[in-house]
Structure prediction request, 242 residues.
Amino acid sequence: LWPNEMKSTLIFVFLLLREVNANYLVETPDAGIDQLVKNGDVNDSLHEGFFFLRRQLEANTPSASPSLSHSPSPSTVTVLTTLNATNIAKRIMFDVTALADVTIESFKIHIGDKLQTGVRARGIQLWTKSGTHVGSETSRRGWSRLRMNTLINQGNGTYTDLDFNFRQFRSVEIPASTTRAFYFVYRKGFYASEGTSVGTISSVENDYIEIKEGTVLKSARTVDSWVGLWNGGFVLKPGIND
Prediction:
């Protein structure tokens, strides 16, 4: 049994989290079409309270029986495209098709030379939608924003890691044989090679996902004239979290 003080603390944290859960939501292009996400501006004390609650629950959960065995978590796989670009794009969207169930955990991007190497920066926007981006290049319908952390630019010729904002996201799941579109926006620009046609596979051969050539945009409402081969990669784990 837990001490009375711990019980009271856990009850207080639970009620506080439940109270704000429905009130702090990010406005998305179409709230409810894909997913609503918790606002990253929620007070940090709530964030700490959540993890305090989880730690307490884990600490007081009985261990599994020694007779049971569990398979280890699958290792992380990185699927890349290329690093040979000379073109700079500020907006690019493309499709990713899953060959197996996968969970996307982070990304690698090739930042343009307008951002100094070693500098911590923010400002990269990442949007996603179920299905292909084709037909939705200049429409906001169906797109949901994924909040991202700051990054530290690794410089020209090197991939820079881009992680989810852990207070809101830890992963994006893509079931086998389905397609999900991704839309990167960064005003300082990132590298993209000139592709051949939208939908052509641009990633290295692997058993998990196909990253495809996509659409470069001049602005939110204007498509550019060249096909973009995004320079970057997806860091994933095989399977979908239960």
User: Anything to note?
Assistant: The longest helix spans residues 4-21. The chain has a mean pLDDT of 78. The helical segments are 4-21, 44-59.
